[in-house]
Design brief:
heterodimer; A: Rossmann fold; 31% helix; globular; B: alpha+beta; two-stranded antiparallel sheet; 15 helices
Chain lengths: 231, 392
């Protein structure tokens, strides 16, 4: 499903402040697999996720998702790809604070061409799956960290994406909420979703449903384990 | 494309983030209100002026010597009448009467009320004027400003003019001129020509000027030429020159306001631009989030365009309505004095509603385009940066 070939990313390219965040990365992930990207801050995990989600473009190399070369997509197609295929869960949740949970959850579908009634029905189902339905009309700024995370999950799932990308999803959660998040992740895995999680949380190290653990350091992949094979 | 979801989301953002828009709406309303008020006053004054001047004669001629105005011989009237194309020739005595105790002056106009045309014009100006009763005693018609001024100085029924011989001429205040003529007649006194002659000390065969009409506009320049051939020492004043002079005066005052408006607009747009282009602003983050969840640059610009268009429209409508009420219902307190402040006596003018839709359209475009640009350009700049960077 995902093929990353010889991908590099250099920030401030051509300037004295140039910084190579990713160095010739190669990666493969099959449909329905769950992959954990482990590594300390600054190892390049988040940059790699941004490239896979078409939030940014690589400096060189190519990224193919479901046969589509997304590393060179123009903005309109990249946006359509994100709207259709990607569910992104951010470390800082990145929710629209002035809006309610439901209003945040419907945001990815606003330009989908669906009518508002259908969109609200889809949002209701997604909030149900993320166990945040009871807070649907509450403003995001009034929610706890765990609730905000569940709202972000509901938003990421509302359009039934094939690929779910999580960037340090438990960094701002306590242990209890982190475990709840992992439970939701497992249920998504069971529903056949392809999942990539970038984290340095030890809770993710020995999860049974994880297919791959990739270790990153200084913009390089320094190790890759197939957990299922080990088990 | 189903737009109801987009409209739903737009409404949500507008209402839930109203705090963000209230400041912009308030400043915009004030700017639009001020500009519209000035333009309403200016248009109304010009329209009223044209209406008032419509009944005036097309030409006024007087005698000058070395550029100085002197009395005009009444005999000129016969010579003027001989020119083809001229009609309704009438004598007039016109001048300022200085009221020394209060250092004020009135514009005194003496007209020949036994002339059919002059009396007809006066009756059309002052509806219901009983000319017989007016002419039976030494009487005068006074502008509202004069009436108020004289009344404040205990001249409620009569006023005594001082003649050049040092004697006093007592004249009855017959009635006030209609308030609709305040723009040019606020400090005016109209009286029979003989009375004015006595007050100014003019000889029997003298007037200050002669008025007449030329019905065919195309002949105006010819007539001026003929007058100059007839009298080497004549000064000719056309009605259109008077209209122009007034228009220039009000345009000049309106122009000053326009400059102030421009300064205020530029400042406001710069503030807006700066606010929207702030590196860590909430707008920046909002755009980044929407981009991350699949909104394209086009979708973002569409949202920002409609959001701003609503703010612009609401501000414009409110500003124009307020200006309309202020000018045409409440007679523009304070601002009217800036326009009418040059008048000799305190003047009160009720502005006649004049709405020029072309003018309103211009105000709207002049305001809306910079406003939209001040929001959309920074929004576009944020939208084209990688969403991850914008969300920081």
């Amino acid at each position: 499903m995902i093929s990353v070939e010889n991908v590099s990313k250099i920030f401030n390219e051509g300037t004295p402040q140039a910084f190579e965040a990713l160095k010739s990365i190669d990666l493969e992930l099959a449909k329905g697999e769950t992959m954990i990207l482990m590594g300390v801050s600054g190892s390049g995990k988040s940059t790699l996720l941004s490239l896979i989600a078409a939030l940014d473009k690589p400096s060189s190399g190519k990224i193919v998702v479901e046969g589509e070369l997304i590393s060179k997509l123009p903005d309109l197609h990249a946006s359509a790809y994100r709207a259709k295929s990607i569910g992104f869960i951010f470390q800082h949740f990145n929710l629209l604070e002035a809006l309610s949970v439901e209003e945040n959850v419907i945001a990815p579908l606003i330009n989908s061409g669906l009518d508002i009634k259908t969109i609200k029905e889809m949002a209701a189902e997604s909030m149900q799956n993320a166990a945040i339905s009871h807070k649907a009309s509450q403003q995001v700024k009034e929610l706890s960290g765990g609730e905000k995370q569940r709202c972000a999950i509901a938003r990421a799932l509302v359009h039934e994406p094939k690929l779910i990308i999580c960037d340090e999803p438990t960094a701002n959660l306590d242990r209890e909420n982190s475990l709840k998040f992992i439970e939701i992740l497992q249920s998504l895995h069971q529903r056949g979703k392809t999942i990539i999680v970038a984290t340095h949380d030890p809770l993710f190290e020995a999860l049974t449903f994880v297919d791959k653990v990739v270790h990153m350091e200084d913009g390089n992949i320094v190790g890759a384990d197939s957990i299922s094979a080990h088990n | 494309m189903n737009n109801n979801a987009f409209l739903h989301f737009l409404t949500l953002l507008l209402f839930k983030q109203k705090g963000k828009h209230i400041g912009a709406v308030l400043i915009s309303v004030i700017i639009i209100f001020l500009l519209s008020s000035v333009l309403f006053i200016s248009s109304s004054l010009q329209s009223m002026l044209l209406g008032t001047l419509e009944s005036q004669s097309d030409f006024t001629v007087s005698r000058v010597q070395a550029g100085k105005a002197i009395n005009t011989p009444s005999a000129w009237m016969d010579k003027v009448l001989e020119i083809n194309g001229i009609s309704q020739v009438a004598p007039r005595i016109y001048g300022r009467y200085f009221f020394a105790p209060r250092e004020e002056s009135f514009l005194l106009v003496g007209v020949d009320l036994f002339d059919e045309q002059s009396s007809k014009e006066l009756r059309s100006l002052v509806k219901g004027l009983d000319l017989k009763s007016f002419l039976s005693t030494d009487s005068m018609l006074v502008g509202e400003g004069v009436k108020t001024f004289l009344s404040e100085h205990y001249y409620k029924e009569y006023f005594s003019f001082k003649t050049p011989q040092g004697s006093f001429k007592k004249v009855k205040i017959h009635q006030a001129l209609p308030s609709g003529t305040n723009l040019i007649a606020n400090d005016m006194i109209i009286m029979p020509i003989e009375l004015a002659r006595e007050i100014f000390g003019l000889g029997e065969d003298e007037v200050t000027d002669i008025t007449f009409n030329v019905p065919n506009d195309a002949e105006w320049d010819n007539i001026i030429g003929k007058l100059h051939l007839l009298f080497y020492d004549v000064r000719v004043v056309e009605k259109r020159e008077i209209v122009k002079a007034y228009e220039n005066l009000y345009n000049y005052k309106g122009g000053l306001f326009l400059i102030l408006y421009l300064v205020a607009m530029v400042t406001f747009m710069l503030i807006l631009y700066q606010r929207y282009s702030m590196v860590y602003s909430t707008e920046r983050k909002e755009i980044g989030i929407l981009r991350a969840v699949g909104w394209s640059i086009k979708d973002i610009l569409k949202l920002k365009f409609y959001e701003t268009a609503v703010v612009v429209l609401v501000s414009f409508v409110l500003g124009v309505i307020l200006a309309y009420l202020y000018v045409f219902i409440w007679d523009a307190p304070l601002l009217s004095q800036i326009f009418l402040g040059g008048a000799n006596l305190p003047n009160h003018v009720s502005f006649v509603p004049v709405l020029e839709f072309g003018l309103l359209g211009s105000i709207f475009l002049f305001y809306a385009i910079p406003f939209l640009a001040a929001v959309l350009i920074p929004a576009w700049k944020i939208a084209v940066t990688p969403p991850k960077e914008a969300m920081l």
